Amino acid sequence: MGVGAIFVLAGVLAFLPAIVDRWALRRGASPETLIALATVTLFGLAAVPVAFTICTGFLAAGGDHGPPSAAAVAGLLIVALVAGRTLARAIAIRRRWRELSRVARALELPDAHDGVKVLPVGDLLAFVAGSEAFISRGLIDHLDPAQRQAVIAHEREHASRGHARLLGAARALAHGAFGIAPASRAAAALDRELDALADRAAAQSLGDPSVVQAALRSVAAATADPAADPQHAAMLQRIERLARCNASGPPLIDGAVRLLTLAIGAFVLAVVCLSIHTGTVLLGAIACGLLIASLLAFTKPVLTRRPPPPRSQETPHA
Question: For residues 315 and 145, is the Cβ–Cβ distance under 8 A?
Answer without folding.
Answer: yes
